[in-house]
Amino acid sequence: MILAAGRGERMRPLTDTCPKPLLRAGGTPLIEHQLHRLAAAGYRNIVINLAYRGHMIRAALGDGAQLGLHLHYSDEGDRALETGGGIRHALPLLGKDPFLVVNSDIWCDHPLLPPDIGDDLAHLVMVDNPPQHPSGDFHLHNGRIDDADGPRLTFSGIGYYRPELFAETPDGAFPLAPLLRTAMVAKRIGGEHHHGTWFDVGTPERLNDLDTRLRTGNIHDHRSPSNHRS
Q: What are the chain's domains?
């Protein structure tokens, strides 16, 4: 699943007329970068959630045949359901097995190959903390993620989930983090530390930086301040 329903407030004015996933970097819409990586990893059925200007995303991508994919759309209407609510709304399209969820507004060289998550409810890909988020999100130790004190890493926007994580959640909008923290208490969240390239394309400046790096082939120099989440 690719999360593509957000308004993209930090990208204004670019997103006043174009949904954020269709903004281009290196001549390609952000969401297509994700689709190419998913196709290379062997995925064929991709769910995309839609809300703000979702009709434009659907029109641009179609059924995915041109990319060798089968695209399915989870329409959330005029109001996005946040990450947790958006995933829950899409569960009928995602099936009963663990599934991958990726943010549409990141660029990352993680291979996206599904791990064996065992009995865990989720497996999160973590990255180094950016200056804008120095406290991080969660603690990772020996492949386990918790909310304990100690050094933390930042959630990359790449995660694998079991449908059971959302089993008792209500319809409507709700965030993902509280569900994860509840599962952490039950010791059912695993994770990994990705040391490769990760860009959170959160502002027009970062979009421009990513665009330049993709066009010049400098994308894997991820020491830039642009390789950070805002």
A: 2-197 (3.90.550.10)
